[in-house]
C-alpha cells in the first residue's frame, strides 16, 4: 500500500490529504457542544499547529499551498484556532511577497510561487470564523481596498471580501458598499474589474439569495454591460435568485427581455440567457402566453450554431414537465425530440438531448392508454344501447346482446356448449357503482377470485367437444379466462407484494389448482386441465419461467399416464407450453421437440402421431407469437419441424410425394432435398415460424402443394377430368379412399392457413411506415450522411421493390382464386359430412383472407404526395401484370352462398353433425371467431364492410340458430364456442393483439410491436432508426446510434419486437470498427486522432447496446436473453472489450434474470474464470474486472435476499442463492491483499442499482478533495483494492454465518491473510462471533507474511467492547514474549492501542491518529503517547495495573535475553554472531518502548512495582547514550 511506502515528498501530501478528508467529515457532522469543542482545542490544537507550521515552511511549493488550504479547512472546523494561525499566515505571506519581489526565479518557479501566494490569501478570510479574529482579518484586508490601487489589487480585494462574508457571515455591509457603489467609485473600470464584480455578485446570490435581492440594481447593471462575460454573470445571478424564488421570474423577464429580446449572438450570454429560461416553469400556469413564447424561443435555440447554447436549450426544455407543456398547448410530437437527437453532433449537447428524449418517452409511457384503441365497456353497463347505436346492428349484437344471451343459456343445466361461452364471456358479478372503502374493496376482490376458482372447477367437468383442428381455439379460450383469473387473484392480494410480485404469486396459486386437476381421478377434468396448463404458460407474467418449467415437466410426466386420453391431452399441450420456456433453456426445448418428432414417426397409435404433429405446429406458432426465442433459434426450430412433418406426410400418403418434391425444390435453402414426409395440420402452423426472407415462398409452396394434390384427386373423380369448378361440382367424391379423404381434408386446412398467411403478407406490403411525414424527414436527414455511388440508385431500388410487390400481389390473387374455386368444388362434390365440414370451415377462412387482402389498400391512406405517387405507381404495376389484388366480390359472395347452403344440405349426408360443426366454424371465422395459425384471433373482415351487410346478418343469424337451437350438442358446442369467440374478438377488435394478427414476418412484428404507440411519437421514431439503420450505422452516425440505444435503454418499456438481432449486429459492428485499419494516405497524427475518435464512438455504441440488453433483457418477448447467454460464454466473453466485460459482470443480476435457471447456474459456476479473462495485460484493467465481478455478485445476492422475503420467488431465488454462495467461495481465493485502513475508515459499499454500479465501476478515481486529486496516495490500484474488498465483504455479509465461517477457514497459507482480514471485518459487522478472531491474532504473531498490517488494523476495528479490548490487549502483551515474531506482536499492540484510542473520539482524534495509526512502525513508536491516553479513560482504569505489570516483564525480558546470550559465549565477552545481535536489538527496541510507556503510566503502577522503576530508568538512559 502506498501509505506504508511513502517517499519524502509524498508523506506530507499524504498526511494533508487525509487531514482534509477528516476535516470535511467533522464539518459534515453536527456542531459539537461548547465543552467538547474546548476539549478538542485543548487536546488537538497543539498537534495541528505544530504540523501545519512545519508544512508551511516545507521546501516544496505544492506542500506549502496544500498546508495553507489545510489551515483554512481547520479553522472552518474549529474556529478558535484561527486566532493562533492568523499571525503565522500573515508572516508567511510577507515572506512570500518579499521573495517574489527579488525576481530571481524562473517562469516555472514564479508560477508555483504564485500558487502559494493565492493559497495564503484565500486562507486569511477564513481566520475570521471566530469573532475575536475578525478585526485583525479586516485590518489585513484593508490594503486591497485603498483608492488608487491597481485594478488587479482591487479585484483581489473584492474576491477576498466576498470570501470573508461567505465563509464567516460577517462583513456584508462593507461588501455591499463595494459592490453597489462600484460605478461611482470606479467609473472607468476595465473589463477585468467589472468581470470580478459580476462574479462576486453571482457568488453572493448563490450563497444567500436573500442578500442577493439587495443587489438587484447592481445585477441589472451587469446585465446591461456591453462586455459579454459581465452580462453572462448578471444573467446567472438573476437565474440564481429566481431558482430560490426570491425574485419572480416573469417580473425579471421584462427587464431581461428589454436587453435581449431574442437569443443573444454572443455565446456566453446566450448560454446563460437560455439557462435562465428554465425558471419560467414556476409561474407558467399564471402566465400561459408568456410561457408559450418562451417555449418557442427555446425551440429556436435548439438550432443555434453554438453547441453550448444547444445543450443549455435541451436542458431548459427538459426542465418543463411534459404535462405542463401539454396544458400550455406547447407540447410538440415526440419525433421532434428525436430529430434534435439525430441532428446533434456535440457530445455534451447529445447527452442533454438524450435526457430530453427520455422525458418524452416517459410521458408517452404514462399516457400510453390514450394511444390504444377503446377498451371494452364495464360488465355492468353492457346490454343497453348508447345514443346513436343501432340495436339491430351486428356490432351491437356481438358486443352486448349476444354475450348476455349466451351466458343465460349457459346457466341452464346440462348445456354442453357452455364451456367456451363461460371461458370467453363470463365474469364475476360487478361491484356496486359507488366507490367502495378499502376493506370492502379487498373483500370484493377476494370474492371475485373465489368465483373464478368455482367457475374453473365447473368448466373442467365440461367436455371440450371441439374438433382436432380447433385446438388453437381451445388454447386461446383458456388463455383469456386464465388471464382474467390471474388479474383477479393478484387484486385479491392487495398491494403488499407490488404489481410484479403479486402476479407471480397469483400464477403460483393458479398452477397449484391446475396441477391438482391434472392429478384428479376425473379423466375429462384432467384433459381440460392439461390444455389449461399450456394456456397458463402463455399468460404468466415475466419472471415466471421457473413456473413454466414446472408446467412442462408436469406435462412430460403426464405423457406416461395410463389414461390414453390424458396422454393425448398432455402431448398436445406440451408443444405450446414448451414454446414459453425461458429463451436460454435450449436443452429442455430440444428434448421436447425430439420426443415429439420421435413419437410422430414411430409410435404405434395413429391418433397420437397426429396429436404430436399438431403439437409441433402449435409449438412453432406459439414460439413465433410469444417471441421467447430469438429469430434465428425460432426459425431453425420451424425448419426442423417442417422437415419432419413433410417426411411424415409422404410416409402416410404416396399421392403427396410429387407435390412435396416440388415444394422442397422451391425452397432449397430451407428444407433438405431428402425430406419425404409431413403432416398437413402441423404444416399449417409451421409457416408462421419460417425466416422472413423465405416465409412467403414457403407459404406459396404449401399452397401450390395443397392445390396440386387437390387437383389430382378431383381430376381422378371428375367426369370430364377438367379442373374448373363447374365440372368439379359435378364430380362425385363418394368413392374416396380413406387416405384420399384424409389427404383432401388436410389440403383444405393447409389452403386455409396458407391463404391466411398470404393475405396478411399483402396487408403488410401496403403498410408503409416511412410514408408518414416525420419518418420521411428522418430518413432524409439520415440520407444526407450516406454516400451514394450512383445518383439514381435509390430510385431504381424503389422501382424494383414496387415491381416485386406488384408481382407478389398478382401471384397471391391467383392462389386465392384457385383456393376459393377448389374449396367451393369440394364443398359441392362432397358426399360425407366430415369432408363437407372441413371444406366449409376452410372456405370461410379463405373468404375472410380474401376480404382482408382487399381491405389492405383501403387502410392507412398515403399522407404525403410522395406516398400517393408510390401508390399510383404500384397500381400501375398491378395493372401491367393483368391481375388486381382485389378479388371479384361476386365470386366471394358466391362462396359465401355455398357456405350457407352447405349448412342446410349437410343434414342429408352421413356425418351431418361434423358437417354442421364445420359450417359453424366457417361462419364464426367470417365474424372474427377464429384463431389463426399464429395463435391469435384472425379478425373479421366482414363486419362493417360496405356492401356485405346482408351477408353479415345472414351469417350471424345462422350461427345463432345453430348455437341456441340445434339439438346436436356437438354442433351447439362448436357454434356457441365460435359465436362466443366472435363476441370476444368484436369487443377487443381495436386492441393491439388483433390489429395486425395473422402474420409472422418482420414487418408484421413491427406492426404488432408499434401498435398502440403514437405514430409521431418518440418511441416509434427511435425504433424506426434502429430497424432501418442497423445495417448502415457507419454511414449514418455511430454516435447517433449510440445515443438512440441509450435512450431506448432508459425507456420504461420497449415495444415487443425482436431486439436481440439488431443489438447483436450493432455489437459486432462496434467490435469490427474498433479493429478496422485506417488508410495509409493520411498522416500518422491524423490516423491517431481518427483512431481515438472512432474507438470512443464505437465504445459508446457497444456500451449503449449492452446497457439496453441488460436493462430490458428480463423481458423474454424482446429476444435479448439469447444474446446475453451467448456473451456470457467464455469464448465470446474473452473477445469483448474490457468495458463491456465489466458491464456484463456488474449487471450479473440482470444477466441471470434473462437466463434460465440451468444457464444461470452454469454462468455462476464459471464466474471465477470470467473475472480473470482480461484481454489486457494491464493490472488496472484486471483489477477493474475483479471489481465488476464482485459488485455484480453482491448485487445478485442482494436481489436474492430481497426476493426471498416474497414467497412468490422463493424457490428459484434459493437455487440461484446456493450457486452464488459457491461462486463466492471460489472467488475468495482470488482476492488481492487487503487494504490498510485507518481508524474510522471503512470499506466502500457497492451500489445495488445498476446505473449507479456501472457509473462507479467506470468512474476514474474516487477522490473527495482537491488535494487528493493532486496526490498519488490514493492511486487507482488502491481504490480498486478497496472496491474489491468492499464488494467481497458485502457478499459475505449476505451469506449465512455458517457458510461464511466455512468459506473463511484458511487451510492454505497463500490466502491466509485474506481470510484473516475478512474474518475481522465480519466480526466487526457482527456476522461472526468474537471467537473467530483467534486465528487472525495467531497469524499476526506467528508468520511473516505480506499484508499482515492490514489484518492488524482490521483486528483493532473489530474489537469494540471495552471488556474484550482489555483481554485482547493483555493477551497480546503476553504473546510478545513467547511469539514466533515478537516485533509483529508489538506492532499488533501498537495498532490495537491506536485504534482504540481513536474510537471514542472519531470526530476529534483525527489529527493524532493520522500519525499514530498510519503504519505499524509509527503505531509502535507512538505507544508512549497512545497507551497512557487510553489507560486514563474511565473504562480502562481497571486494566491499567495489569498492563503495567506486563510492561515491566517486557523490560525485564530484554536483560534476561542479554544475560543468556553472554552465558552462551562466556569467553567472548561480547556478542559475536550476527543473528544474536539482531535478536538483541529487537528485544532491546521492544524494551525501550515498554520502558517509555512505563514512565508515562507511572501513576498506575502498583506499590510493589515501584521497585522496578530504577531498572526501567537505567534501561532508558542506556538506550539514550550516543
Radius of gyration: 42 Å
Indicate the mean pLDDT.
75
Strand tally, please?
0
| Helix content class | 55-70%
The span between the termini is 35 Å
- Helix segment count? 74
Strand content: under 5%
Low-confidence stretches: 1-9, 32-42, 372-387, 652-657, 660-685, 687-696, 719-730, 767-791, 856-885, 990-1005, 1031-1035, 1075-1092, ...
- The class by helix and strand makeup works out as mainly alpha
Profile the largest sheet.
none
Shape: globular
Features:
single chain; 1522 residues; mainly alpha; 0% strand; disordered N terminus
Short account of what is shown:
This protein is mainly α.
List the helices and strands and how they pair.
Blueprint: H1 10-28, H2 34-56, H3 61-77, H4 82-102, H5 107-123, H6 134-141, H7 151-168, H8 172-180, H9 182-185, H10 191-207, H11 209-212, H12 216-223, H13 228-243, H14 249-259, H15 267-276, H16 288-301, H17 307-319, H18 322-327, H19 334-343, H20 347-366, H21 394-410, H22 418-425, H23 438-460, H24 471-492, H25 498-518, H26 523-539, H27 545-558, H28 564-578, H29 586-602, H30 606-626, H31 631-652, H32 657-666, H33 680-686, H34 692-717, H35 725-729, H36 738-766, H37 773-783, H38 793-829, H39 833-855, H40 865-880, H41 889-905, H42 912-926, H43 949-965, H44 969-987, H45 992-995, H46 1002-1010, H47 1018-1029, H48 1033-1036, H49 1038-1049, H50 1060-1075, H51 1084-1112, H52 1121-1127, H53 1130-1135, H54 1138-1146, H55 1148-1153, H56 1157-1165, H57 1167-1170, H58 1179-1204, H59 1210-1228, H60 1250-1258, H61 1266-1270, H62 1276-1293, H63 1297-1303, H64 1312-1324, H65 1333-1342, H66 1348-1358, H67 1362-1378, H68 1382-1398, H69 1406-1412, H70 1416-1421, H71 1423-1431, H72 1437-1464, H73 1474-1496, H74 1509-1520
Helix pairs in contact: 1-3, 1-69, 2-3, 3-5, 4-5, 7-8, 7-10, 10-13, 12-13, 13-15, 15-17, 16-17, 17-20, 19-20, 19-37, 19-47, 19-49, 20-49, 21-22, 21-44, 22-24, 22-44, 23-24, 24-25, 24-26, 25-26, 25-27, 26-27, 26-28, 27-28, 28-29, 28-30, 29-30, 29-31, 30-31, 30-33, 31-33, 32-34, 33-36, 34-36, ...
Amino acid at each position: 500500500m502506498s501509505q506504508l511506502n511513502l517517499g519524502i515528498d509524498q508523506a506530507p501530501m499524504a498526511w494533508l490529504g487525509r487531514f482534509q478528508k477528516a476535516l470535511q467529515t467533522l464539518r459534515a457532522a453536527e456542531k459539537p457542544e461548547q465543552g467538547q469543542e474546548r476539549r478538542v482545542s485543548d487536546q488537538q490544537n497543539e498537534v495541528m499547529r505544530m504540523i501545519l507550521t512545519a508544512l508551511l515552511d516545507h521546501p516544496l511549493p505544492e506542500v506549502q499551498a496544500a498546508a495553507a488550504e489545510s489551515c483554512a479547512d481547520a479553522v472552518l472546523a474549529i474556529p478558535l484556532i484561527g486566532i493562533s494561525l492568523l499571525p503565522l499566515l500573515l508572516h508567511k505571506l510577507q515572506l512570500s511577497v518579499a521573495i517574489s519581489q527579488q525576481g530571481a526565479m524562473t517562469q516555472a518557479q514564479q508560477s508555483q510561487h504564485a500558487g502559494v501566494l493565492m493559497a495564503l490569501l484565500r486562507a486569511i478570510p477564513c481566520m475570521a470564523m471566530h469573532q475575536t479574529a475578525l478585526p485583525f482579518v479586516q485590518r489585513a484586508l484593508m490594503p486591497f481596498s485603498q483608492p488608487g490601487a491597481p485594478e488587479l489589487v482591487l479585484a483581489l480585494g473584492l474576491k477576498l471580501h466576498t470570501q470573508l462574508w461567505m465563509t464567516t457571515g460577517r462583513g456584508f455591509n462593507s461588501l455591499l458598499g463595494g459592490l453597489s457603489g462600484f460605478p461611482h467609485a470606479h467609473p472607468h473600470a476595465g473589463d477585468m474589474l467589472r468581470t470580478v464584480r459580476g462574479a462576486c455578485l453571482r457568488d453572493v446570490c448563490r450563497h444567500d439569495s436573500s442578500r442577493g435581492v439587495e443587489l438587484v440594481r447592481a445585477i441589472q447593471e451587469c446585465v446591461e454591460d456591453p462586455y459579454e462575460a459581465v452580462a453572462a454573470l448578471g444573467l446567472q445571478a438573476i437565474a440564481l435568485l429566481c431558482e430560490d424564488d426570491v425574485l419572480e421570474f416573469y417580473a425579471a423577464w421584462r427587464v431581461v427581455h428589454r436587453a435581449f429580446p431574442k437569443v443573444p449572438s454572443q455565446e456566453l450570454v446566450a448560454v446563460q440567457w437560455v439557462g435562465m429560461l428554465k425558471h419560467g416553469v414556476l409561474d407558467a400556469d399564471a402566465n400561459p402566453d408568456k410561457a408559450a413564447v418562451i417555449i418557442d424561443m427555446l425551440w429556436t435555440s435548439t438550432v443555434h450554431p453554438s453547441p453550448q447554447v444547444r445543450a443549455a436549450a435541451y436542458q431548459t426544455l427538459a426542465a418543463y414537465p411534459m404535462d405542463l407543456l401539454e396544458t400550455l398547448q406547447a407540447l410538440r410530437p415526440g419525433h421532434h425530440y428525436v430529430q434534435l437527437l439525430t441532428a446533434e453532433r456535440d457530445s455534451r449537447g447529445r447527452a442533454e438531448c438524450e435526457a430530453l428524449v427520455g422525458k418524452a418517452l416517459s410521458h408517452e409511457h404514462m399516457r400510453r392508454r390514450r394511444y390504444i384503441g377503446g377498451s371494452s365497456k364495464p360488465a355492468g353497463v353492457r346490454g343497453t344501447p348508447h345514443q346513436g347505436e343501432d340495436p339491430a346492428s351486428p356490432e351491437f349484437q356481438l358486443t352486448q346482446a349476444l354475450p348476455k344471451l349466451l351466458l343465460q343459456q349457459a346457466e341452464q343445466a346440462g348445456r354442453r356448449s357452455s364451456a367456451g361461452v363461460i371461458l370467453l364471456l363470463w365474469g364475476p358479478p360487478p361491484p356496486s357503482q359507488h366507490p367502495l372503502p378499502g376493506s370492502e374493496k379487498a373483500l370484493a376482490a377476494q370474492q371475485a377470485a373465489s368465483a373464478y376458482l368455482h367457475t374453473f372447477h365447473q368448466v373442467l367437468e365440461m367436455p371440450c367437444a371441439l374438433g382436432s383442428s380447433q385446438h388453437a381455439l381451445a388454447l386461446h379460450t383458456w388463455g383469456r379466462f386464465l388471464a382474467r383469473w390471474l388479474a383477479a387473484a393478484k387484486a385479491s392480494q392487495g398491494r403488499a407484494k407490488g404489481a410484479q410480485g403479486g402476479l407471480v404469486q397469483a400464477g403460483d396459486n393458479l398452477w397449484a389448482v391446475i396441477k391438482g386437476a391434472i392429478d384428479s381421478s376425473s379423466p375429462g377434468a384432467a384433459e381440460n386441465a392439461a390444455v389449461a396448463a399450456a394456456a397458463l404458460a402463455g399468460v404468466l407474467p415475466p419472471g415466471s419461467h421457473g413456473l413454466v418449467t414446472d408446467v412442462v415437466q408436469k406435462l412430460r410426466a403426464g405423457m406416461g399416464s395410463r389414461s390414453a386420453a390424458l396422454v393425448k391431452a398432455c402431448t398436445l399441450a406440451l408443444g405450446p407450453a414448451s414454446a414459453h420456456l425461458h429463451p436460454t433453456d435450449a436443452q429442455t426445448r430440444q428434448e421436447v421437440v425430439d420426443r415429439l418428432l420421435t413419437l410422430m414417426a414411430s409410435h404405434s397409435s395413429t391418433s397420437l402421431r397426429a396429436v404430436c404433429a399438431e403439437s409441433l405446429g402449435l409449438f412453432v406458432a406459439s414460439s413465433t407469437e410469444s417471441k421467447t426465442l430469438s429469430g434465428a433459434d425460432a426459425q431453425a426450430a420451424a425448419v426442423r419441424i417442417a422437415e419432419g412433418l413433410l417426411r411424415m406426410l409422404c410416409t402416410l400418403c404416396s399421392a403427396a410425394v410429387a407435390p412435396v418434391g416440388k415444394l422442397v425444390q422451391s425452397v432449397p435453402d430451407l428444407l433438405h432435398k431428402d425430406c419425404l414426409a409431413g403432416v398437413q395440420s402441423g404444416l399449417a402452423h409451421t409457416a408462421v415460424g419460417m425466416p422472413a426472407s423465405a416465409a412467403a415462398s414457403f407459404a406459396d409452396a404449401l399452397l401450390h402443394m395443397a392445390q396440386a394434390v387437390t387437383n389430382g384427386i378431383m381430376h381422378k373423380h371428375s367426369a370430364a377430368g377438367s379442373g374448373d369448378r363447374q365440372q368439379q361440382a359435378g364430380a362425385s367424391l363418394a368413392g374416396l379412399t380413406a387416405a384420399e379423404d384424409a389427404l383432401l381434408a388436410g389440403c383444405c386446412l393447409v389452403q386455409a392457413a396458407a391463404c391466411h398467411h398470404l393475405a396478411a403478407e399483402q396487408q403488410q406490403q401496403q403498410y408503409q411506415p416511412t410514408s408518414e411525414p416525420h419518418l420521411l424527414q428522418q430518413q432524409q436527414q439520415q440520407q444526407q450522411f450516406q454516400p451514394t455511388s450512383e445518383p439514381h440508385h435509390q430510385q431504381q431500388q424503389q422501382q424494383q421493390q414496387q415491381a416485386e410487390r406488384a408481382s407478389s400481389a398478382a401471384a397471391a390473387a391467383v392462389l386465392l382464386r384457385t383456393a376459393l374455386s377448389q374449396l367451393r368444388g369440394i364443398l359441392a362434390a362432397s358426399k360425407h359430412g366430415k369432408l363437407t365440414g372441413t371444406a366449409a370451415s376452410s372456405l370461410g377462412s379463405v373468404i375472410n383472407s380474401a376480404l382482408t387482402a382487399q381491405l389492405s389498400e383501403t387502410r392507412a391512406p398515403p399522407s404525403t404526395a410522395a406516398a400517393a405517387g408510390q401508390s399510383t405507381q404500384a397500381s400501375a404495376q398491378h395493372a401491367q401484370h393483368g391481375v388486381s389484388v382485389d378479388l371479384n366480390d361476386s365470386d366471394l359472395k358466391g362462396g359465401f352462398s355455398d357456405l350457407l347452403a352447405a349448412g342446410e344440405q349437410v343434414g342429408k349426408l352421413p356425418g351431418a353433425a361434423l358437417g354442421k360443426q364445420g359450417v359453424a366454424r366457417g361462419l364464426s371465422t367470417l365474424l372474427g371467431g377464429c384463431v389463426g395459425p399464429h395463435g391469435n384471433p384472425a379478425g373479421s373482415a366482414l363486419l362493417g364492410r360496405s356492401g356485405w351487410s346482408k351477408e353479415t346478418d345472414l351469417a350471424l343469424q345462422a350461427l345463432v340458430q345453430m348455437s341456441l337451437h340445434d339439438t346436436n350438442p356437438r354442433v351447439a358446442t362448436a357454434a356457441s364456442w365460435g359465436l362466443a369467440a366472435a363476441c370476444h374478438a368484436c369487443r377487443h377488435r381495436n386492441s393491439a393483439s388483433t390489429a395486425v394478427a395473422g402474420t409472422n414476418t418482420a414487418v408484421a412484428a413491427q406492426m404488432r410491436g408499434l401498435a398502440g404507440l403514437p405514430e409521431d411519437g418518440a418511441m416509434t421514431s427511435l425504433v424506426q432508426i434502429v430497424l432501418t439503420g442497423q445495417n448502415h450505422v457507419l454511414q449514418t452516425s455511430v454516435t447517433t446510434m449510440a445515443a438512440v440505444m441509450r435512450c431506448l435503454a432508459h425507456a420504461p418499456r420497449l415495444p415487443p419486437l425482436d431486439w436481440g438481432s439488431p443489438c447483436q449486429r450493432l455489437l459486432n459492428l462496434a467490435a469490427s470498427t474498433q479493429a478496422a485499419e485506417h488508410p495509409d494516405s493520411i498522416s500518422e497524427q491524423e490516423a491517431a486522432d481518427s483512431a481515438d475518435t472512432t474507438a470512443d464512438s464505437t465504445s459508446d455504441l457497444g456500451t449503449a447496446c449492452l446497457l439496453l440488453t441488460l436493462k430490458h433483457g428480463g423481458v423474454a418477448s424482446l429476444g435479448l436473453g439469447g444474446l446475453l447467454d451467448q456473451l456470457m460464454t467464455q469464448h465470446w466473453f474473452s473477445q469483448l472489450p474490457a468495458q463491456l466485460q465489466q458491464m456484463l459482470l456488474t449487471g450479473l443480476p440482470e444477466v441471470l434474470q434473462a437466463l434460465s435457471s440451468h444457464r444461470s447456474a452454469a454462468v455462476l459456476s464459471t464466474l471465477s474464470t470470467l473475472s480473470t479473462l482480461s484481454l489486457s495485460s494491464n493490472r488496472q484493467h484486471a483489477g477493474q474486472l475483479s471489481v465488476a465481478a464482485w459488485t455484480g455478485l453482491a448485487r445478485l445476492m442482494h436481489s436474492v435476499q430481497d426476493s426471498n422475503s416474497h414467497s412468490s420467488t422463493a424457490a428459484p431465488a434459493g437455487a440461484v442463492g446456493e450457486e452464488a454462495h459457491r461462486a463466492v467461495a471460489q472467488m475468495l481465493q482470488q482476492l488481492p491483499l487487503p487494504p490498510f485502513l485507518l481508524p474510522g475508515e471503512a470499506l466502500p459499499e457497492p451500489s445495488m442499482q445498476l446505473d449507479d454500479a456501472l457509473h462507479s465501476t467506470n468512474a476514474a478515481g474516487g477522490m473527495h478533495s482537491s488535494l487528493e486529486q493532486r496526490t498519488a496516495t490514493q492511486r487507482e490500484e488502491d481504490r480498486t483494492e478497496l472496491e474489491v474488498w468492499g464488494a467481497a465483504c458485502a457478499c459475505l455479509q449476505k451469506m449465512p454465518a455458517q457458510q461464511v465461517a466455512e468459506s473463511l477457514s484458511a487451510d492454505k497459507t497463500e490466502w491466509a491473510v485474506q481470510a484473516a482480514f475478512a474474518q475481522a471485518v465480519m466480526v466487526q459487522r457482527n456476522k461472526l462471533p468474537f471467537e473467530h478472531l483467534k486465528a487472525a491474532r495467531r497469524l499476526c504473531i506467528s508468520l511473516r507474511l505480506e499484508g499482515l498490517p492490514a489484518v492488524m488494523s482490521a483486528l483493532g476495528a473489530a474489537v469494540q467492547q471495552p471488556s474484550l479490548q482489555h483481554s485482547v490487549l493483555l493477551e497480546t502483551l503476553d504473546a510478545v514474549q513467547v511469539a514466533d515474531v515478537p516485533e509483529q506482536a508489538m506492532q499488533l499492540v501498537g495498532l490495537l492501542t491506536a485504534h482504540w484510542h481513536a474510537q471514542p473520539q472519531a470526530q476529534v482524534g483525527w489529527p493524532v491518529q493520522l500519525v499514530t495509526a498510519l503504519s505499524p512502525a509509527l503505531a509502535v513508536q507512538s505507544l508512549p503517547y497512545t497507551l497512557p491516553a487510553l489507560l486514563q479513560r474511565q473504562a480502562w482504569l481497571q486494566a491499567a495495573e495489569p498492563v503495567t505489570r506486563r510492561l515491566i516483564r517486557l523490560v525485564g525480558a530484554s536483560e534476561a535475553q542479554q544475560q543468556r546470550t553472554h552465558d552462551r559465549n562466556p569467553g567472548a565477552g561480547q556478542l559475536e554472531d550476527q543473528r544474536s545481535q539482531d535478536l538483541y536489538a529487537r528485544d532491546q527496541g521492544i524494551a525501550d518502548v515498554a520502558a517509555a510507556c512505563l514512565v508515562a503510566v507511572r501513576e498506575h503502577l502498583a506499590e510493589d512495582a515501584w521497585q522496578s522503576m530504577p531498572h526501567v530508568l537505567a534501561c532508558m538512559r542506556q538506550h539514550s547514550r550516543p
